[in-house]
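Ticket opened by: R.M.
Priority: normal
Category: complex prediction / small molecule

The reporter submitted a protein together with pyridoxal-5'-phosphate and asked that the result be attached to this ticket for the collaborator who will pick it up next week. Submitted input follows.
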Amino acid sequence: MKKHNFSAGPCILPQEVFGKASEAVLDLDRSGLSILEISHRSKAFVDILEEARGLALELLNLQDKGYQALFLQGGASLQFYMSALNMLEKKGAYLDTGSWSAKAIKEARLLGEVDVLGSSSDKNYNYIPKDYKVPSDVDYFHCTSNNTIFGTQIKDFPKSDVPVVCDMSSDIFSRDIDFSYFDIIYAGAQKNMGPAGATLVVVKEDVLGKVSRKLPTMLDYQTHIKKDSSFNTPPVYAVYVSLLTLRWLKENGGISAIQEQNEKKAKLMYSEIDINPLFDGFAAKEDRSTMNATFTLNKPELKETFEQMLADAGINGLNGHRSVGGYRASMYNALPLDSVQLLVEIMDELETKA
Ligand SMILES: *Cc1c(COP(=O)(O)O)cnc(C)c1O
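Result attached by the on-call engineer:
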């Protein structure tokens, strides 16, 4: 039985992408070769990479605006350091909204001063701090748009006179915002774009080249820009599967269409959490993520029953992260509304058993 996959990442991708991705392992576009055996310098792959880079910018509405899209490796976790290495001369300003932000702050501190503008660590990151201003005497402002673990999401980004760097790993391509507000966006592919193994970095070229330190070749964004994201062997298969997902997104109406779907799913999920007396939402209401809904069951004696019902219904990946506990329903782009509907029905049914 095909499961309903609420996993936080790696996570569900469109079913048709799985089909096409598996075909390409045997025979890429009737070339007689597998995607896994072709040269990364072959025309077939260069075309794939160029299309993926172009489509990422097109979907974000950033083409012809001085941005470059790169497919790198090392995950979003390497970007914590790499973004600071390329941007931090003296001081970076950070918003601390969760474990991923805290990790980004730790890496930046290896390179210079860090000004933490606000933190929600006092309440186990269940809200987004709002009472802060981005100073103009810092090199850049860094934030995490969606806090995958805690289920919070920045809805309004602050005014900033300095370049903005954003970890968008878990909500990129999910909502229609003005992406030109950001100067560097990075995202591990494995949450809304593709399989693990590639990291998308979208960077505005004119913010680079301003730090005085000597950058290691592989950690310099300009190396990868100059070589069209092929300085070394790119993660060929992860790029290909990301391209399939980006094509799927475009064919289905792009970001604004998927945003509508994502809002429907989130509305259904959160109204159940709010109405059903057995469950409590974790995140502050105004900061709730449309991607990851975190909640707890307030009758521990029903835990076993609930989890058996989930298992019987083929629901996968609902366990919360260890730092929050409870449950987390991750509702990324490819998760059908039907899966959320089913989960909500099970929660309703549990209420009748209580
Ligand atoms: C998953 C995640 C990361 C870590 O990504 P890796 O690719 O595993 O390094 C960083 N930031 C956010 C917001 C995430 O959701």
